[in-house]
Each structure stands twice: as C-alpha cells, then as structure tokens.
Amino acid sequence: MARPIEPSSWSQAFANRSFVWGFAITATITAMALISLVWTPYDVTALNIPARLKPVSAAYWLGTDHFGRDIFSMLMVGARNSIAVALIAVGIGIIIGVPLGCWAAAKRGWVDELLMRTSDIIFAFPALLSAVMITAIFGASATNAIIAIGIFNIPVFARVARGAALSIWAREFILAAKASGKGAARITAEHILPNIANVLIVQGTIQFSLGILAEAGLSYVGLGTQPPDVSWGRMLNEAQTMIALAPQMAIIPGRRSSSCSWGSIQRRWSARCVRSQVAAGAMTKTMREPILTIDNLSVMAGDHRILHSINISLSAGEIHAIVGESGSGKSITALSVMGLLPPALRAHGSINFAGNNLVEASEADMCALRGDDIAMVFQEPMTALNPVKTIGEQIAEGIRWHTKVSRAAAEDRTRAILDRVGLPAAKFPLTRFPHELSGGQRQRVVIAIACALNPKLLIADEPTTALDVVLQAQILDLLRELVAENNMGLILISHDLGVVAEMADTLTILRGGVVQDQGDAIEVLRHQRHSYTRQLAEASTHTPAWQARGAQASDIPLLKVEGVSKVYSGRRSGLFSPAKPFIAVDNVSFEIPAGRSVGLVGQSGCGKSTLARIVLALDQATSGTVEFAGTKMSDATAKALRAARRDMHVVFQDPYGSFNPRMTVEKLIAEPLFLLPEKLSRSDTRDRVASALQEVSMDVDAMDKYPHEFSGGQRQRLAIARAIITRPKLVVADEPVSALDVSIRAQILDLFAKLNDELGLAFLFITHDLAVARAITHEVMVMSHGKIVERGLTHDILDSPQTDAAQKLVKATPNLIEAIARRSKIEKGE
Amino acid sequence: MVYFIARRLLIVALTLFAASLIVFGMLQVVPGDPAQLMLGINAADEALAALREQLGLNQPLIERYLSWIGGMLRGDFGRSYTYGVPVIDLVRERIFVSAPLALIALALSTAIAIPVGIFTASRRGKPSDTVITAATQFGIAIPNFWFAILLVYLFAITLKWVPAGGFAGWAGGVWPALKSLALPAIALALPQAAILSRVTRSALLDTLSEDYIRTARAKGLPFSHVLWHHALRNALIPVLTILGLQFAFLLAGTIIIENVFYLPGLGRLIFQSIQRLDLIVVQSVVVLLVTSVILINFLVDIAYAWADPRLRTR
C-alpha cells in the first residue's frame, strides 16, 4: 500500500543542492539590500562628473555610470527598491486574494462563480499592459507601479488559494471537523490555511520573481521608479543609451535581477519531494509441466534484501495464489516476473519462462514477451486505463504491436475479446472512453487488454480489492473461465484467504519477503500447520468475543430516520435535453435504539455513504427528517445541534486521509471537545485525550506525535479515540476496517465490540463486507438503489436472505471455511 | 461537444463585454477632466471644448459607451488626437509588425520547448538533463529586455549581423523584414521557451508515474512508444494552459521589446500614445489586445477538450 509521505521540512529542502544555491543567492542579495540602508561604498545621489564611465577597477568594483555614480552602490540601493516593490505587491495579492479564494472554496455556489469569472476577465488583460495603462493614467511613480503589479496578484492568489482549499475541503478530516460542529470560518483557519500554506509560499516566490521582473520592465520604459531614485529596471533604462560606450552598466544589473528571481524559482522546484515506498517479499513447489519456474529469486533495494530466495512453479491451467499482508513482497514478486521492477530494485536468481531466464532477459526480449505471452492485471481499475484514449484503441494497440495485423483485423479481435469479458460491442462500442465506464467495467477492459493475445501466463495483482463483493465474484468467475478456456497459468495475488480458498490450486504465503508456507492450497489452508497460516486464517474469520448486550437494548429509539431522500441534479447530456435527476437515497426510514449495533450493507453506489452523511447532519436531505435523541436535526437551533453532535461521531475508511497531517494527535483527538458547553483547560483536555487513548489501547505518549508516525491500524485506533472522546451515544463507521490488513482488522473489530460492551455505544456500520457485518452487528439493513430493501437480525439475514439484493451479497461473499469444506469434498469425489 | 463550444462562446462574449466595460471605465475614473489631462493645463478653451465634443464627454455615460462600442464593432476606432488620423489606420499599419513578431516568438518558443521538455524528461537525472534543466532555470529568471540588450550588443554592435533596431518594412521584401524581426523574436521567445520546457518536463514526469503507463508497459510496448503515445497527450493539458498564458505575456512583452528595438508595432504605438496621453488610441489598442487574448484562451479551451475527452461532457 502506498503511503502518502506528509510535510517536507526545511532540512529536507537543504539536502537539495539547487535549493542551497538559490537560497544562498537570494540571501546575499537581500543582505546587500539591507546593508544599503546604512552604508554604500559611494553616495548614489551625488554626481561626480570627472569619474563618469570608469571601467571596472579596485576603486569602482563594477565601474561607474554616465553621471560618475558607482554601479555597485547603485546595485545595492536598486536591490532595495526592486525588492520592496515586489514584496509589497505580493503582500497586496496575499492579503486580499487569499481570503477571497478561501471564501469562494468554503462557500462555493455564486461566490465561487463570481470569483472565477472576475479573475477570468482580469486575466484577459496582460498584466504588464495593464500596469502600463494604470501608471499612464494615474501618473508614473513607484507607488503606482506597486499598486498596478499588486492588483494583478490578487486574482492569482485567489485562484491558487481556491484550488488548493477545494482539494483540502474534499479530505475526510474536514468531514470529521464538521462532525465536531466547527463552522466554515473555523475550519478554514484551523485546517485549510495550514495545509495550503506551502502552496501559497511557492506561489508567493513565483509572484515575487515576476514582480521584480515587472518592476524592472516598468522602470525600464520609464513608468516605474522615477529618477533620481534607483532601481534595477531604471539602471537598465539609462544603460541602454550607453551600451556601445559602457557595456558593464547594462550587463551587471540585468544579471542581478535574474539571479534574484532564480533563487526563488529554485525554491519552488525543490519544494516537491517524492518518495516511494517499497515492499518486501518470498516462494516453493513443483507439479506437472511447469510453464513458470521461479528459482531462488531475491530482490535487493541497495544492500537491503526485500525478497528472500523464493521458489515458485506454475503449470498451464493452474492458479497459484500469493498471499500476504502489506509489505510482504507479493507485488515485488509479480513485477520481477514482468521485468517492471522500479529502477532502484535489483532481482537475483532465475525466473524461467518458455526457455528464457527473465531475470537476465534484455529489455527488447521482455517487450516481446509482455502483453503477448505474459500479461498482468492491476489492482486499481480507476487509474489503470489511459483517460484520453478509447477502450478500443487501448486494447487494439497491444494486438497490433505484437501481431502486426491490420487495423481492421485488430479491431475485430478487440470486439471479440470485449465480448468475451462481458462488454458486448452493441452496448460498449470501441469508441467508449474509460471515464464512461464503471469500476467493474473498467476492470473488465484491463482484463481484455491482458488476455487479448491468449497469454500463457497471467498475473493478477489484487484484481478485485478495489471492487465490492458482488463485482469481485463476477471478476473472479471471469478469470477462472479464462484460465480454463485458454489453459493459461494464473498467479493471483491477494490478501484475502476467502478468495484464495475459492480460487487457488497452489499457494504461497509470504511475510516480510520470506516464504512462510507453501503447497496445495486446500491442504495448506485445511491443516494450517504453519503458525502464520493459522494466524492469518483466524484473523480472517475472526468474530470478537462479544457479550452483545445491545441485542436486548431498550425500544426507545436513539436515532429515528423518517422518509429521507436525497436527489442530485444530474449532468446535462446535450444542449437542449434537460438534466436527469439522480436519486441517491430514496425514501428511507429506520430507527436505531440506544446500545444497538446496526449494519448498513450494500454494493458500492447504493447510497450507503450519502445516507450516513445525512444522519451525521453533514449533508442536507432533500426531504424527510432525522431525529436524534429527540432533536430534529434539520430544524434544530445551533445549540441543540451542538448537543446532538456531541452525542454522535464518525470513523472513516481511510486511516491516512482522516487526519490533518499538520496537527498533533492531542489536537486531533481533542477536536470534538469543541462541542462541550464549557471550555476545558489545557490539563483537563490532556486528561480527556489520555483516557480516550487508553480506551483504544494506545500509549498516552502518542499525544505529542503527528499522525504520519503511526501505522494504518494505529491511526484507525486514533480515529476511534477521536470519535469517543465526548462520550457519544452513537458512532457512525463508514467501512472502518476495509483498508486494513486482516490481522489488524481483527484487532479493530475487537475494539468496536469492547466499546459496545463497556460504553453502551450504538453503532451504524456501513460496509459491503458481510463478514464484518456478521462479526460486529446485531441487525443489518440491506440497501439497494437508494432503498432499504431488507432488515432483520444479522444471522437471520445472512443465513437466509429474502430479497434479490441480499441474496446476491450473501452469495458473493467469499467464505474461507465453507470454501475449504466444499473443495475438500470435491477432491475426495463426494 | 456542441454544448461545450456553445457554453464557451457565451463565456467569451460575456468576458469581452466585461473587459470593454473595464477599459471604458478606466477612462472615466481619470482624475479630473480627460480632455484637460490630454491637452495639458495651458490648453485653449476652444480646443478643450472640441476635444470634449469628440470624446463625447457632453453625452450621458451609457450613450457614450454605446457609441464607442458600436463604433468599434463597425471598425470605427475613433480619431487619434495626436496623429490626427483615424485610429484604425494607425493600427492597420502596425499590426503587420506586432502580429508576425508575436506569432514567430510563440512558434519559436514552442518549437524549442517541447522537444527540450521531452528530451530532458526521458533522460531524467542524467547529466544532459541536469545541464539543460539548470540552463532553463537561468532562462526563466532573465528579464527579456535585458536579454534583448545583450543580443543587440552581441549580434548587432559587435558582430554586425543584423540591424540594432528599426523595421525594414514588408515592402522591401520578406527577408530584410524577417531579419529585423529575428532578434526581437528570439529575445521574446527564449525566456518563454525556458518556462515552457520546464512545464513540459515536469508534466511528462508526473504522467510517466501514472498507473496507466504501467498498463501500457505491461502490453509490451517499449518505453519510447509509451512516452509518445500515452504520456505526451496526457501531459499536454498543463502545457496548453501555460501556452495560453504565454500568449498574453508575449503581447505585453512586445510593448517593451518593440521599444528596445525601435520597432513600429502596436506596443510602441501604445507606449507613445501613453506618453502623449492620447487616450483614444490607448483605449482602442488595449481593447484589441485584450480581445486577442480572450480569443486565444477560447482556442486553448477547445484544445483542452480535444486533448482530454473527460472535459467534453462538461
């Protein structure tokens, strides 16, 4: 799993050589400008005609101009004026532009539209032209130059601030702040500004550079700084007439004005810091005629071994699963076979495929194999396809490259393979673009690309992890059929033992780059001889030891949802056709009693998350009412709403996105305390945070750390600590464990069970995974196309689903124990 | 797509209208009497009255705006006070200097920047990339008029290859005219090329780390094919944005560059008119330049939609 690396610091910036250079140059020039306030080698206002146009010498370091003034002294004073103009102009832009941009991002709607259109209009005036015009009309002076440059900085900063702020507003930690009752102004001050500050600083340095250039330009044409004042642009203006006589006058200030901007620009480019994280990995075993033999494969990252001598062998028509948690080396193994390891990694050992050793094969040989005999399917269908090419082009491309057939023949073949993967040409013409398809359909296109030339070996790296269970089952069926039809070998990489038990013939279990267990899949999973195999199997079927008192909870509803609907206005499809509304939530009613844990299950896109946001009053329902602990949320007073928010909170899916990276854990967890009627002292706050941390089994000293110092599982504990700090009565959890490894997931489920037992917390669990629902809920509601179609006790619904939607979900959910039992029977021939 | 273009055209019309209001408004907020400002304090009363009449200062604001904008639409830009000829005549002469200059500079900077950007991106981290990237850093920071002075010093004064300034005119043949535009075009183009090549490089590098590049590599396509067929078109979007902005920069840049080289173009016209406070000329030329910026941005928007199918439905 790729983890976003958060804030880049000054020490990182200084590790960059070009940054150090730029910084040094900028610092020198600034120092020169400051020193000129108190001292210059010569007086720049006094004329000294006998000394005019002297060349460079010890007395005049850079020579003199036509009035006998020392050019070095003028340069120092000029720096002062040029920097002052640029700095004030940037200041004007920031002071007016940033608040406007933040306002537009917070308010959206007409404010946003007005800001965007106004800045469009201002951008239509080339900045320098407008500055020329303004100074012409209002008189040429340094002050007018500052104002003219400053005015055009306003829309620049407004646009940049708006864009950056919008992307922060979309993050989950903003939702958490909203759920803590904070208003737009407070969220902007506490969360938005600190997170867009670095973007603004970068833009500030760019505008500063441009300001210096603009001042130079204006003064050069005589509309900026007026004589006898000195600035760099002014110096160039006076120099031009003299160029044939005294070139040193023109060349020196020009170079200064360029290197100053250079410094700021280098800072911009070094602000980006990219790091990649690399996983680690291992494998063993032989059967029939192997098509792929991985022998003693190790992968090194420099001196660090991340994959330890693994052995795998795969025959035609066989499915081999590689299982492990994040960082186990599964994907590294796959990429080694493809010859697509990141450049920093080196593979050793041998990978034998059709008589070639792929570890030593040349790039040209690998290109001939890839996409023809060996193909790969990736995890994330939303980003795996090129957004600017049609699906037809993307499939036909590989066919034409490898077989050199005509375009028409390649397109025929493309249509055939699309039809095979379940996208018939009648409904899915070749001219479709990826963004016109859903996630499941896109994954079918990726499979079509991989299987277009009937490869002998297919590698599928977590092909269904980004899909819901129903889509997962469909994609797995498709893969299984393709293996059988083409007698293809499949390496299936997965973290889900249930999926593996359904699919795999043979199995390798990896941990930290080392093979833990290997062999016939059903054998390995049934006997679980290795302790790590046992551990994984237990974690993936884990049910918390749970007293489940909530099952007999009172009948007084804590949460009462009545006739709630949410309708989005759709997108226009043509100039005259009206927009079709989209009904996300359709007349939903339910109740949750105090202390009860209720699951809300359904396929992706069924409206679960929208409903959750409405329950949390983070979104307005189009119609219907939500009543929480007797308060009608839609028409509650601000005070009543605060009280209600105090009693319910939220935990999100993504443990990386749900924290503001620039706040300490103490501040993050204490955020909902904002809802308390009285303001707590610092020590009381720390006490409350400490006890919340203890409740989720975290060390108290976590308080002073930043979120990026914690693993995914730890962060999810922190998110839960934040949710329970005000002692709420209800926690809404949106897919809280689906981004976690199975062993971590088991621990988090235990934690939820404990909180229900000890604090009597009611839960609304939103999930597409019925195993989670079975583990932690008393009741489930099945949602489909915006409606709740079935509701009942969890085991009733999971054991005998009544509606179509529920049956589909239950049938699609992989079940480790059932799969082992079923396949063992088949093997025994019963 | 039709809907997309129609919507864009509507925005163009509205922006043009707003821009004309701003230009018109600027003249109205001139402190004091515009006629007095143009003619100076010692002007005779009859002259002032005549100019007021010509500027329509005696008419109500709305009528004045309507007759001005109406005239512009008919090609009647008014009469220059200082030159004593219709503004349209002044513009017609000079546009054949400024337009070729801006277009040559734009073409030159694109022709240099895109290959350089592709080259450095495909050689990321190698010595050739480091050297060129450092050079572009320098190019970004150079004021174009200073660069122009250097060029004049080197090619005109020292080497005497090209004239130091002035314009030979198209009447004397294409070659001498192009020769007098060469240095100004280079002075305008190179700093822009430095920016554009950096944008191309970083956009390409961003694109090359995308998942779909890995998908394309997994099809067995060699790196160069993936670069040209998959990465480049996706990287074009930020490049187009900068290209649109650069046109505005180039237009503004001509004001200064034409002064450095004493070229009789629109930039020099506007500059001289400002110095002589001939606001009728200023106002018309500004509207003309702004219109061309808006139209170029419209073309860039259409190019976006061509480059990225996701934008067509918006």
Instruction: Indicate the overall shape of chain B.
Output: globular
Number of helices of chain B: 12
- Kindly report the oligomeric state of this protein: heterodimer
Specify the structural class of chain A. alpha/beta
Q: Features of this protein?
A:
heterodimer; A: 830 residues; alpha/beta; six-stranded mixed β-sheet; B: 314 residues; mainly alpha
Describe the protein in words:
Chain A has 830 residues and is α/β, with parallel strands linked by helices. In chain A, 48% of the residues lie in helices and 16% in strands. Chain A is built from 29 helices and 20 strands. The longest helix of chain A is centred in the N-terminal third of the chain and has 37 residues, at 71-107. The radius of gyration of chain A is 33 Å and the shape is globular. Residues 1-9 and 255-287 of chain A have low confidence and may be disordered. Chain B is mostly helical and 314 residues long. Helices cover 78% and strands 0% of the residues of chain B. Chain B contains 12 helices and no strands. Chain B has helices at residues 2-28, 34-39, 45-55, 61-74, 87-122, 127-141, 144-158, 174-208, 211-218, 223-260, 266-275, 279-307. In chain B, helix 10 packs parallel to helix 11.
SSE topology:
The complex is a heterodimer of chains A (about 850) and B (about 325).
Chain A: H1 10-14, H2 17-38, H3 71-107, H4 109-123, H5 127-138, H6 142-169, H7 172-179, H8 184-220, H9 232-240, H10 247-270, E1 290-301, E2 304-315, E3 319-323, H11 330-338, E4 345-353, E5 356-357, H12 363-369, E6 374-377, H13 391-403, H14 407-420, H15 439-451, E7 457-461, H16 469-486, E8 489-494, H17 497-503, E9 506-511, E10 514-520, H18 521-527, H19 531-540, E11 557-568, E12 582-593, E13 597-601, H20 608-615, E14 623-628, E15 631-632, H21 638-646, E16 648-651, H22 665-670, H23 682-695, H24 712-724, E17 730-734, H25 742-759, E18 762-767, H26 770-776, E19 779-784, E20 787-793, H27 794-799, H28 804-812, H29 816-828
Parallel strand pairs in A: 3-8, 3-9, 6-7, 7-8, 13-18, 13-19, 16-17, 17-18
Antiparallel strand pairs in A: 1-2, 1-4, 4-5, 9-10, 11-12, 11-14, 14-15, 19-20
Chain B: H1 2-28, H2 34-39, H3 45-55, H4 61-74, H5 87-122, H6 127-141, H7 144-158, H8 174-208, H9 211-218, H10 223-260, H11 266-275, H12 279-307
Helix pairs in contact in B: 1-12, 5-6, 5-8, 5-10, 6-8, 7-8, 7-10, 8-10, 9-10, 10-11, 10-12, 11-12
